[in-house]
């Protein structure tokens, strides 16, 4: 049986940090075992990784995923996600430099931290009214991302990146507000109750990170 938690809000960020760590372990695994030649196809792979992440984000928002499952599944998913994003991150590291990629990662952490603090300072459920708008925006983003496969214009990619950053920033406000409401209702008992919340916030984080990198890459090139 999972242990009960004294501070679920702090615990969700602990598990999120572990999830991001598993992502980078997956990235290191990809570096070690995936042929470097695949990196050359990273820009093509990127669009499909983003589409996959968007579909998963939509599924989780529409309750297509269980509300409670083992946290170990989250770690397995983020590890696999790290492997899948290895060619993309490696391309960004080569084109932009490791320093810019690291600065972007730190910037994403700062965005997550600030928005989480803002949402947590409001009463439980304060930003839940954004739910439908964000969901419809996310579906629209997915549609236009698929269309962008056939219309490969720099301006299109820049607009999609900015839209993605805005939408998933809104989802951070929403997800923290939802978590706070679930805590206030007494629905968070152990770490498995946090699993879907950790996954959602992870998806917010990684989509903002990839969109920021793509925006910087498009502006540079």
List the topology elements.
Elements lengths: L7 H26 L8 H20 L9 H26 L1 H24 L9 H17 L6 H31 L10 H26 L1
Membrane topology: Multi-pass membrane protein
Protein name: Bax inhibitor-1 family protein
Pfam families: Bax1-I (PF01027)
Task: Give a written overview of the molecule.
This protein has 7 helices and no strands. It is mostly helical and 221 residues long. The protein is globular.
Could you provide a short overview of the structure?
With 221 residues, the protein is mostly helical.
* Series of H and E elements: HHHHHHH
Question: Helical content, roughly?
Answer: over 70%
Q: Bin the strand percentage.
A: under 5%
The biggest beta sheet reads: none
Rg calc:
17 Å
Low-confidence stretches: none
Strand elements, count: 0
Shape: globular
User: How many domain regions?
Assistant: 1
* Class from secondary-structure proportions: mainly alpha
Total helical segments: 7
The average pLDDT is 92
- N-to-C span: 52 Å
């Amino acid at each position: 049986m999972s242990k009960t938690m004294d501070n679920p809000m702090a615990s969700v960020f602990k598990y999120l940090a572990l999830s991001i760590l598993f992502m980078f372990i997956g990235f290191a695994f990809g570096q070690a075992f995936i042929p470097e030649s695949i990196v050359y196809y990273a820009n093509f792979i990127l669009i499909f990784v983003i589409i996959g992440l968007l579909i998963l984000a939509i599924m989780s928002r529409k309750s297509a995923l269980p509300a409670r499952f083992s946290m170990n599944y989250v770690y397995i998913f983020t590890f696999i996600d790290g492997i899948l994003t290895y060619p993309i991150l490696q391309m960004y590291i080569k084109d932009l430099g490791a320093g810019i990629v690291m600065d972007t990662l730190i910037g994403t952490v700062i965005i997550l931290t600030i928005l989480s603090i803002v949402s947590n300072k409001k009463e439980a459920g304060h930003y839940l009214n954004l739910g439908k708008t964000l969901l419809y925006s996310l579906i629209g983003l997915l549609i236009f991302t698929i269309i962008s496969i056939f219309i490969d214009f720099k301006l299109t990619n820049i607009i999609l990146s900015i839209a993605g950053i805005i939408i998933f920033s809104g989802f951070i406000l929403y997800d923290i507000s939802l978590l706070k409401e679930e805590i206030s209702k007494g629905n968070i008992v152990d770490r498995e109750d946090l699993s879907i919340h950790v996954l959602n916030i992870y998806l917010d984080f990684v989509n903002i990170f990839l969109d920021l990198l793509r925006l910087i890459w498009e502006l540079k090139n």
